[in-house]
Structures are given as C-alpha cells and as structure tokens.
Design goal:
- 2 copies of one chain form a homodimer.
- Chain A is of the alpha/beta class and 225 residues long.
- The first copy, chain A, has 7 helices and 5 strands, in the order E-H-E-H-E-H-E-H-E-H-H-H.
- Chain A has helices spanning 18-30, 46-58, 103-117, 140-154, 169-178, 182-188, 205-224; strands spanning 6-13, 31-40, 63-67, 122-124, 159-161.
- Chain A has a 5-stranded parallel β-sheet, sandwiched between helices.
- In chain A, strand 2 (31-40), helix 2 and strand 3 form a beta-alpha-beta unit.
- The two termini of chain A are 20 Å apart.
C-alpha cells in the first residue's frame, strides 16, 4: 500500500470477525486515523467483544462498545407479532432468533450519530453483497440509499465505505493478505457460531463458509507462486 | 371525515404531545386499525409516557413503549467528543442535552422494524417542516429518503405518513378540530417542558409555541363563525 493516506478519521463498525477485522486494517491503510465501534446485543457471545477489543488494542485503534441490547425488545417477546413463531434455538445454517430485520441500518445509524458527534465523516462497514445471505441490508443499493438518508438527517456529508462489497470469502482472505494481516485475521478473529476464535469449531455454518474461502484462497495462491 | 377507511393497519410514533396525538386521531380517521409506539430515553419526563398511555387507552389504541435509554450513551458521556462541551441544564428555548442528531431517524427505524415484524406497512410520524426548529430530520426530503432506505433495508414497501409536514401550530390545532378532538388535544396532551399537561406551565418555549398557535387558530375561527 503505497497510496498516500487520507488525512481524515474513519470510524469502523467492528465485531472482531474476519470481515470487520479486514475492514479495520483496510481503514488503517487508507486513513490517517481510525476508530472502532462494536455493538453488543442479546445473545451475542460476550467473548466476541473481548476478541474485538484485543484486535483493536493490537492495532492501536481506540475502541468503544455500544450496548444495543434493546434489540431484544424487538424480537422474542410480546412486542413481536404473536402469530410469528420464534425459534427456540438458533437454526443450523441460519441466524439467531435475536436477528432483527434492518439491523445493519440500526448499527450504521448509531455509528453515524457517534461519528457526527466526533466530527468524523468516514464510516467503514464490512457488508458484502456477494455473501449477503439473503439480507437486503447488505446490498450496495441499500448502503447508498442509507448514505443519503444519513446525510439528510444530519445535514452533513458522510461517506460509507464498504471495501468488501464485491468480495466473496476468498476475496476477503486475499485482501487481508494484501494488507499484510493474513495471520492476524486467520488466528485472532472470531467468526465461529460456537465462540471459538481463529479456526473455530470447524463445523458450524460460519466456520464452513470461512474455511471454504480460505481453502480456495490458499490453493489459488499456491498455483500462482 | 367521510372518506372510506383504508383496510390496513398504521403504526403511529406517539409521544402524547399535541402533534403526535393529532396524528393518532388522523390515523384513526384513515385506517381501519391503528397501533401506537412510544420511546422512552434519558431525561424524558416519565409522566409523558403515562400521558401517552392514557390518551391511547381513551382512543382504544394498542400502545407499546420501547426503551431507547441507550441514546444517553451517545450524549453526555465518554463516548462523545471530549472537546464538545455539553450543557449542564437544558438551555432555555433549546433542547435537552440528551438531544441526539438523527434522533428521528433512529425512532422511525425502530418503529419500522417493529412494524415489519407485525406485518404493518404504514408508519405515521408527527414531524413538521414548518416548525422544524432547525432539525434537518424533520424535513420532507429526509423523510422521503428514509422511506426508500427502510424499504431497501427490509425489502418491503413502507409508507411513511406525515400529516403535519406542511402545517404550523395553528394548522395543527385546525386539524385536531376537523378531526373532532380539539378538546382532547387541548386538555389531555403534554407538550410543556416542565411536564404540566394541557395548557402547561405557560412560559416555557414549548408552551409559548403551542399557545401562540392556539390563539391564532381561535381568533381565525371566531372571524369565520
């Protein structure tokens, strides 16, 4: 990365997983100053926040946690449609029952408010259209619309950066390697549904997705060496 | 109101104040079914929620409260820019120091998530461009952009209704009279910064704005009778 860095600050939505860790280092390569914000809520592994904090400390990035446990008010309780059956357990290959439609919109809006109050106009989010898993709020069209709404809401000029938007998992591994943080992402991040950092449990859907991407990237790398 | 009602449900963002109470009755005149959601946070008068609950009960509208006290995380604490001096007390004629830029965006996004989970696609908000008090997130342009962002975020087709958008306070009094709820709005709602329902304390900025509108409306009404 020989690009001259932008003399501005970026705020990264940061969970300590593969995607947002890659985004954190992408931001460090592009911006003079980087901050990170993490969201805790409902059934999210508490360990995840500690992993995020550790990675941020290692990268010397100021790190804050916002408590969005109110998201649970919108899921499996009386507030939701009583006709809507909630899962007792997280369904295999699917999402926890605290999943809230529009969750990325809520996260990015809170991140934007925080950024606004700190005089920061660059936001970075690890959403990917390629791996969007059926969530409409990972798509580029949505992010661009949200960018306009945030700008109008606060009469300002945010730029939301989504460096992974067109990348599949193999591409995300490639990017972390380009950024010189392949090992950090491989061994320090937490993606696994069962809360095991690095290579993870090896059999949950998140581990499968991550491993398949890694295998594809490593075999591509081998062929080109 | 002889219009045939829409055979759908509307969710009203409802605080128990003059504007949102007028919106609640507007919604009742237009939709077969109406629900209300109120947001509690930070320094908001607890009484306000009880006033809202009472008005909703009287109107036989299901009423829920969402706790957004996390908004205080975004204001007068370590998360905000330490260089940004926060007011110790609410400045006269201004807003409490828990005011958060983009707050309407956060409220409407949470309301939309709740609506989505209940299969509701109509949202009603009492924002007004005429009285927008310098908040960009009261403007029609913002609301229309937000509507698109919400639709893209959840792949759905919300309609945000803002019946007060072009009305000043006099116009809001006129609308409540047309809807047959002039006295309910006048004597049951709470707008006063000092937490006094109905006519209020009579001297805070909210009371002044409300009273001037009322006086203008009553004198117009007198002239045309």
């Amino acid at each position: 990365m020989t690009n001259k860095k932008l003399q501005e600050t970026a705020l990264v939505c940061f969970s300590g997983g593969q995607d947002s860790t890659t985004c954190l280092y992408w931001a460090l390569s592009r911006f003079e100053s980087v901050q990170a914000v993490s969201f805790v809520y409902g059934q999210k592994h508490a360990l995840e926040v500690e992993v995020a904090r550790r990675i941020a400390e290692r990268a010397q990035v100021p790190f804050e946690v916002l408590d969005l446990s109110l998201l649970s008010q919108l899921t499996d309780n009386a507030l939701t449609n009583p006709a809507m059956k909630m899962d007792e357990e997280q369904p295999a290959g699917s999402y926890p029952n605290t999943f809230v439609p529009g969750r990325n919109m809520i996260f990015l809006t809170f991140a934007a408010v925080l950024a606004f109050q700190r005089g920061i106009r660059h936001l970075v989010a690890g959403v990917s259209q390629a791996d969007f898993s059926g969530y409409p709020d990972c798509r580029d069209t949505f992010i661009r619309s949200l960018n306009v709404s945030l700008n109008l809401a606060m009469d300002t000029s945010f730029e939301i950066h989504t460096p992974l938007m067109r990348l599949d998992k193999e591409g995300v591994w490639a990017l972390s390697d380009e950024l010189g943080v392949f090992d950090v992402v491989r061994y320090e991040t937490l993606t696994c549904y069962n809360g095991i950092p690095g290579e993870g449990c090896g059999h949950c859907p998140a581990c499968n997705l991550r491993r398949h991407g890694l295998e594809r990237y490593l075999s591509r790398k081998k062929r080109t060496e």
